[in-house]
Specification:
Blueprint: H1 5-13, E1 19-23, H2 28-62, H3 65-68, H4 71-78, H5 85-96, E2 102-110, E3 113-122, E4 129-135, E5 139-141, E6 163-168, E7 180-184, E8 188-189, H6 195-202, H7 206-217, H8 231-270
Antiparallel strand pairs: 1-2, 1-8, 2-3, 3-4, 5-6, 6-7
Helix pairs in contact: 2-5
Protein name: BN860_01090g1_1
Transmembrane segments: 29-49, 78-97
Keywords: Membrane, Transmembrane, Transmembrane helix
Length: 271
Amino acid sequence: MSVPFAKCINALVSKTTSEPIFQYTPGRLLRVSTVGFSLVFFAYGATFVDWSYHSSLDVWRNADDETRASWEFRVKTFSPWALSLIPFTVAATALYIPSRVVTKVTYIPRQRMPPLCQLERRSAILGRRIEVIRPLEQLARNEKARVYTGVGPQGVDDKASWVFLLYDRSHLCKSFFSKYYILHRAGKFWGGDGRVFDALFGGDSIKDLEYRGRQAAQGKELDKSVKHDPQILDDMIARSNRAKFHAGFKDISKRIVGGTELKLQKSKESK
């Protein structure tokens, strides 16, 4: 982290090709633990359904016809069945959560247009690779839970949480769970610096992030308040896009000139 953070982030936005900025390989423990957790709650739900069935049946049989006709009696007798949805929902959620774990994040630059971001994850059942591409501004980090903590080799270690979330603000997300992506802090960050994510997805001030980096290097406690100022990053991206456009225009001009000279040379040779 000896390189100034402004130069680090500027090097990223100056890329002309796609660049991976985060990579993580989930261990088997994640899959095994979630499956085990799901089986426990599934068994609990099945046991609760069996108990509710027999208890409700006994109460129904012991009641007279007049009591059975009361809607209040029916609600009290059979409403416990609805509680069985809770353990079954927890079991299904436990199987679904690993599919929201992101294995790779790729920064995709574009000439004269805002950059894109590609997220890769695995499906819940078959483990197939799923890729989602969104404009960078549609992905956001939680305002309070910052990625950079100043602890660890990448500055992202946190005793309170092993993961952080990215929120997808795209209208293409149809369900509540599809709007959230889970990223593990043990993943490999671009440049070995977690501040990249705070700048790209949190809109944190690059100057403040540089200051926090100096605080971490000196062993000081990081300031809890960080200014929200994405304008510096936006200016970097805009300057980079202009530079890429002019570079591409010069390259096209060289090709046109080279092609014209080649045609003239062939024309002379044919004469």
